[in-house]
Amino acid sequence: MTALELRAVEKRYRNTVALADYSLTVPSGRVTAFVGPNGAGKSTAMRLLGGLREPDGGEVLVDGRRMSPDDRVRIGHMPEERGLYLDETVRAQLRYFARLVGIPPRSVGEHVDLILERVGVAELSDRRFAALSLGNRQRAQLALALLGHPRYLLLDEPFSGLDIDGLAQVSDVVRSLASDGVGVLVSSHQLEVVASISDRVAVIARGRAVAEGPLSDVVGTSGSSLRELLGEAA
Fold first, then answer.
1. How confident is residue 193, by pLDDT bands cut at 50, 70 and 90?
2. Strand positions, DSSP E, 159-217
3. Most confident stretch, 69-78, 105-114, 214-223
4. Run of H or E including 28
5. pTM, whole model, 2 decimals?
């Protein structure tokens, strides 16, 4: 099975243990819901998976081998914090970042336009990022994460600020990516939405694994069950 993995990782920030002997699997072609109380270690785990931080112990693996710099380019990461500049247009920024992830110059415009259309902000992309609503900023951030045809996608609170139509569209994008073989890890407090799009669930609390596996096996298929499990892990 092809997968992005944390294997028995440790991560500390001074005297704080963020992750302790923590393992997590993000298989290709699946959407894994990543849930846990605030401060459980979700964002730290995502940074390790994206190659943005190094573990103090354990391994980060891509398809069974240690992550390399080339692997990092094929991992899309949408952090909860904004990654686009406020005073620049969305389209110009995505074209710049597309070149950085290796899209050939003659293909950059088409590549960016297709992604903007897919996430639903093509008509707004010539506006400054600061001029967009919260929901449209989220879509633009998702577009940034999709540059370069990532094999794995890490989404931290991707549904924040979206209206009903936006939720439906972004959910459809996530499901279609998994259908195309992308491994998706999605963390969100909107548990009903996460439950509706996920095949698997990984529950974390206090930097340690609580449960991981097919959603139906761990909690059933309802958001309320997922909420109950999260309450038990707090």
1. confident
2. 183-187, 200-205, 208-214
3. 105-114
4. none
5. 0.91
User: For the chain, what is the largest distance between any 2 Cα atoms, rounded to a whole number of angstroms?
Assistant: 52
Nearest alpha carbon to residue 175 among 193, 160, 157, 189: 193
Chain centroid, CA 30 distance in Å: 12
**Cα–Cα distance for residue pair 58/192, rounded to 1 Å:** 33
- The H or E element containing residue 215 is helix 215-218
Label residue 146 by pLDDT band (50, 70, 90).
Answer: very high
Q: Is the C-alpha dihedral spanning 104, 67, 207, 57 positive or negative?
A: negative
Strand order in the sheet with 152-156: 75-78, 152-156, 183-187, 31-35, 200-205, 208-214
Length of the chain (residues): 234
Backbone angle region of 232, left / alpha / beta, with phi > 0 → left and psi within -120 to 50 → alpha: alpha
- Written as six digits, the tokens of 180 are 């195309």
Q: Taking a C-beta distance cutoff of 8 angstroms, is the pair 79, 46 a contact?
A: yes
Helix, strand or coil, per DSSP, at residue 57: strand
- Lookup result for tokens 């110009």: 92
Distance CA 148, CA 131 (A): 26
The dihedral built from the CA positions of residue 227, 206, 211 and 155, taken in this order, carries a sign that is positive
- Percent of the chain at pLDDT above 90? 72
- Residue 24: alpha-carbon gap to chain centroid: 14
Query: Tell me, what DSSP letter sits at residue 128?
Result: B
Query: How far apart are alpha carbons 37 and 104 in whole angstroms?
Result: 42
Letter string b/e over residues 39-52, b meaning 16 or more CB atoms within 10 A of that residue's CB: ebbbbbbbbbbbbe
